[in-house]
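TASK: fixed-backbone design
INPUT:
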């Protein structure tokens, strides 16, 4: 039996806004209840899917408090608390802990392109600043550079509260290395819905999912089937939702998933600049798939 704390199906929650651009607390509660009813294991607000670069510290606090209140005792609440300035990331991490987050998701600094030692020192400072578990977030497609397996394993060995990585690369070699070399308590999660099946077949522990916003039961079902070794069931779920997993990235995340949630009547279709609504062509393609899946 594994003693890993952070496993299963986690949702990278969107942040619903009102037409005036403020946080829509009522819609946020509705989204968390939707996740709770579906049996989602972990809910993670204030990440990139939650438009974190546009959230103020006060909004981060408000969102985490609401999510924690609605989550009840059955669902862990993580929270995005990362940025590319280490001092600010520490401030956001401490703030998330104070607001009630039970773990934080800390993205690799983007744009600065630090060396591996720079990544190590960045995450080391954050881990020292909080008592709650830290989930490292490696997303080379958005940050412009990769945190290597060596650096991630070094951090996992050096800090008791660095307990997981969200590995959002499709680098199967790196994923295999992480799974093989990690300490026993350390979880390796994918950030790519379309890779859940192969990722977990290699020994991964679950997903931090975008599609779980729309189809939390299906994502949970896929993760549970893979955990139980029910490959046929997992393949069937994956086959059904594979196109949706892909279409969620037809334009920049979270624009497609937010459009879908608006079509499903769960949120209003409001983004904060620099994000804007999808093109009509993309909307038509995504809506067709939502209809096919019976979501609208």
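OUTPUT:
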């Amino acid at each position: 039996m594994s003693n890993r704390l952070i496993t299963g199906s986690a949702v990278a929650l969107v942040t619903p806004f009102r037409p005036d651009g403020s946080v829509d607390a009522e819609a946020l509660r509705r989204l968390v209840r939707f996740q709770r009813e579906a049996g989602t294991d972990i809910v993670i607000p204030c990440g990139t899917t939650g438009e974190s670069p546009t959230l103020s510290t006060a909004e981060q606090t408000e969102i985490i408090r609401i999510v924690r209140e609605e989550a009840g005792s059955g669902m862990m609440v993580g929270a995005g608390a990362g940025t590319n300035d280490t001092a600010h990331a520490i401030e956001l991490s401490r703030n998330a802990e104070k607001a009630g987050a039970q773990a934080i998701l800390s993205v690799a600094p983007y744009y600065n392109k630090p060396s591996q030692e720079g990544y190590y020192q960045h995450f080391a400072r954050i881990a020292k600043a909080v008592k709650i578990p830290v989930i490292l977030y490696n997303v080379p497609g958005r940050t412009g550079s990769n945190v290597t397996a060596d650096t991630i394993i070094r951090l996992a060995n050096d800090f008791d509260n660095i307990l997981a990585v969200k590995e959002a690369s499709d680098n199967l070699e790196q994923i295999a290395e992480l799974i093989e070399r990690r300490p026993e308590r350390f979880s390796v999660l994918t950030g790519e819905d379309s890779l859940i099946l192969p990722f977990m077949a290699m020994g991964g522990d679950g997903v931090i999912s975008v599609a779980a916003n729309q189809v939390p039961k299906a994502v949970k079902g896929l993760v549970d089937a893979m955990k139980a070794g029910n490959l046929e069931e997992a393949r069937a779920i994956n086959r059904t939702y594979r196109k949706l997993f892909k279409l969620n990235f037809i334009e920049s995340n979270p624009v497609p998933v937010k459009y879908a949630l608006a079509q499903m009547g769960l949120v209003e279709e409001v983004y904060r600049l620099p994000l804007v609504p999808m093109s009509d062509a993309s909307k038509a393609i995504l809506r067709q798939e939502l209809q096919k899946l019976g979501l609208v």
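COMMENT: The chain has a mean pLDDT of 97.
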